[in-house]
Amino acid sequence: MVEKRFVFLFPGQGAQYPGMGLDFYDISPAAREIFSIASETLSLDMVSLIRDSDAEKLRRTDVSQIALTAASLAAAARLKEKGFTPSICAGFSLGEYPALACAGVIGAGDCFTLVQARGRAMQAAVDRISGGADSAPGMAAVLGLPPEQVEGLIAEWEKAGSFPGGLYAANINSPKQTVVSGTAPALAEAEKRFKKAGARRFIRLEVAGPFHSPFMKEAAEAFAPALEKVAFKDPEIALFSNVTGNRVQSGAEAKSLALRQICEGVRWTDEEAALAAFNPDAVFEAGPGKVLQGLWRDTGSKVPCRPAGTVDAINELTAEN
Predict the structure, then answer these.
(1) Which domains occur in the chain, in start order?
(2) From 28, 53, 72, 93, active-site residue
(3) pLDDT in tens, 34-52
(4) Catalytic residue chosen out of the listed positions 53, 212, 213, 241
(5) Does 72 qualify as catalytic in the annotation?
């Protein structure tokens, strides 16, 4: 029998919601083990955190990252219990950490240790550069323009010297969507200019700061010592990088990319192309939300990305197979 090639994709920050992943905790021994490791490693009750936090609290980077990681690893654990063994994995932004654990590069305990340190470093950087809710830097999705046009326009505006603050192409999500990071004045001006250039929509994202941009330099510097303490093994299955869009060849490369990823953009379209080249039999979004399903759809792949972030979703997959 030919083994099927399953791809696990792990979502990034912004996919979180109160109560996520707790349905896995209720029925899955493997998922309960994930929550137990998280609670013990982080010295907190992960179940209570996810159950009792409202959307605003979960939006905080130092909360959302550990909670999303727990929910995503719980989803992956349930998929494996149901017979879906991954041969390829990747994650979007924060999702690279459950992907690292899924690929055997780091253990679940180290995964939570790193995600907590990363989240705290990023939240501290956001707090330092934030000027309040109305003037805080952030991120926005530009819909309807190709990524190369978005990047070209930003370069053109910066060169002309007529643009307020900083603006960066942070996430190349699909041929139709690019996420930008910037200061509040830069995002306000960018919205007008991108729409004038033909953008269909300009959507502010529910994230706490201007991630995957030079604004996060201090966060990377603060995170580096924690990263250095953790041993990274070579991947046991195919693992892909946001920074390069390519397959990660070694643990040393994975560690280097984990640091670079904080300040550098997510080349998701390149990553998806590399994943599709493996001709997977099925692709699953292992974690909350459906963002990655939509982005995968934009690739035109004949193999859809299926939801796998709830017990019910995985039960449907099991019934079909």
Answers:
(1) 6-129+214-320 (3.40.366.10), 138-204 (3.30.70.250)
(2) 93
(3) 999 999 999 999 999 999 9
(4) 212
(5) no
